[in-house]
Amino acid sequence: MEEVYALEGVGFSYGDVVALRDASFSVRMGESLAVLGANGSGKSTLLKILNGLIFPSEGRVEFMGRTLSESALSGPFRRCFRERVGFVFPEPDVQLFCPTVFEEVAFGPLQLDLGEEEVRKRVEELLEMTGLSALKDRPPYTLSSGEKKKVAIASVLSINPDVLLLDEPTNGLDPRTQVWLFEILARLKSLGKTFVIATHDLSLAEDFAERVIVIDESHTIAADGPAYSVLRDKDLLLRANIIHEHTHRHGDLVHVHSHGPFASHDEHE
Predict the structure, then answer these.
(1) Residue 34: CATH number of its domain
(2) 145-165 burial: b if 16+ Cβ within 10 Å, else e
(3) N or C: lower Cβ tally within 10 Å for the chain?
């Protein structure tokens, strides 16, 4: 499969604060990759680098064989890149700014200079697919968090990107909306879209990703491999603070509780 991203020795710092160290990996066309890590591990920083919102302090990133840099995104390559890559922020309020839901979803296609009729058709189809048709005239700020997330996703899908970068997509979603999200992602996956999803939601990674990268609290890649293998490495997930367990004593019995996919209740004298 064609290589979409290639990273070599990528690091990033916010002033003196290191957010990411020596990240080297590639992403292939049609691949579904989950990036797991505790809060503050560097997941969001990595996705911002992949989306060309920030640029590495060290190392190199390539998109489709071309260096992804500030100068590259100042020239003709910018349109090609922005048409092919869509980014869903963890908080939809950061992403939504138009007066109505319809205008929000129409914004991207209008920037591509599509005809008015084509834009209207595309927006209406997306609103129907995402269950937002009844809300099309509502201001986004009046919506629930789940509805806002749907609008944010629809606004990204409106440009029909080949690559989707999703940062904590299940944040703030109720169970029904999470099921909706999983169904939408599965549908897009069947169309050959490429996904990089930053999350600490192990169920999302297990159900959707073929491959998992774990970033530990030293901001380095601790594992990169098939999802079925990485997600069964309890010691790795404990070290990376993705799952946890605690111990307490009742008399002569010591109870060890594991949480997440390794939930258990062990007793030891």
Answers:
(1) 3.40.50.300
(2) ebbbbbbbbbbbbbbbbbbbb
(3) C
Planar angle of CA 164, 165, 170, nearest 5 degrees: 105
Q: Give helix then strand counts, H and E, for the chain.
A: 10, 13
- Write the DSSP assignment of 89-109 as a string of letters: -SSHHHH--SSSHHHHHHHHH
* 100 CA to centre of own chain: 25
Apex 182 CA angle, 43 and 96, nearest 5: 60
pLDDT digits (tens, 9 = 90+) for 74-125: 888 998 999 999 999 999 999 999 999 999 999 999 988 888 899 999 999 9
C-alpha distances (whole Å) from 66 to each of 18, 25, 69, 210, 234 are 26, 15, 9, 25, 38
Q: How would residue 244 be classed by pLDDT, with cut points 50, 70 and 90?
A: low
Angle (CA) 68-76-67 rounded to 5° is: 15
Tally of structural domains, the chain: 1
Is the pLDDT reported for residue 184 higher than 80?
A: yes
Instruction: Tell whether 175 is covered by a domain.
Output: yes
DSSP state of 146: H
